[in-house]
Design brief:
By secondary structure, this protein is of the alpha/beta class. The chain contains seven helices and seven strands. This is ATP5S synthase.
Length: 183
């Protein structure tokens, strides 16, 4: 294979995984459609009332439309990217999101996350770890997540103005517990 062709193939495949199917969202509901997207991209979901993480796409629970509500998302090592974030729009019960080692997560993703009105109301915990494309701009965008109670940031080399960024974020979200591991 010519140099870069493998990277091009995986980039194309990730774009396919992240393409939003609005008809599917209407047909099966936002939580089921988002579950399918997240699992297809290698993330995990946990539903309200369940202690177990769902990781098998073929093992997604069935039942009446709207029965299973996503409460937590663990996107560690997943290929989720901005293109698929429309799947998050209809989620009303997500309290916890972990973004770890997500090579396609960038500032625009965090901006989009913070502008999602349902997440502004429900999201309480967010962890962003080893996402190399996140900068101060993306962290500052989180100020719209007004119910966020806990934010953990670790191994984010794109954050250059730590003190200013965190001071501004703490002023915008005074009840936020901010835990940092950015050395």
């Amino acid at each position: 294979l010519p140099p870069g062709s493998c990277r091009t193939f995986w980039g194309w495949l990730n774009a396919v995984f992240n393409k939003v199917d609005h008809e599917r969202i209407r047909a099966v509901g936002p939580d089921r459609a988002a579950s399918e997207w997240l699992l297809r991209c290698g993330a995990l979901v946990r539903y309200q009332g369940s202690p177990r993480w769902q990781q098998d796409y073929n093992g997604l629970p069935t039942g009446p439309l709207g029965k299973y509500k996503i409460e937590a998302i663990n996107a560690t090592d997943s290929c989720i990217m901005y293109r698929g974030f429309d799947y998050l729009d209809g989620l009303e019960h997500v309290t916890d999101i972990k973004l770890e080692k997500c090579m396609y997560i960038q500032d625009e993703c965090l901006q989009r996350l913070s502008e999602t009105s349902n997440l502004q109301k429900s999201l309480q915990r967010l962890e962003i770890i080893s996402c190399g494309n996140v900068t101060d701009k993306g962290i500052l965008a989180l100020h719209k997540l007004t119910n966020l109670q806990y934010l953990y940031l670790s191994d984010l080399p794109g954050i250059r103005q730590k003190e200013t960024t965190f001071r501004v974020l703490q002023q915008a979200l005074p009840n936020l517990e901010l835990e940092l591991d950015l050395e």
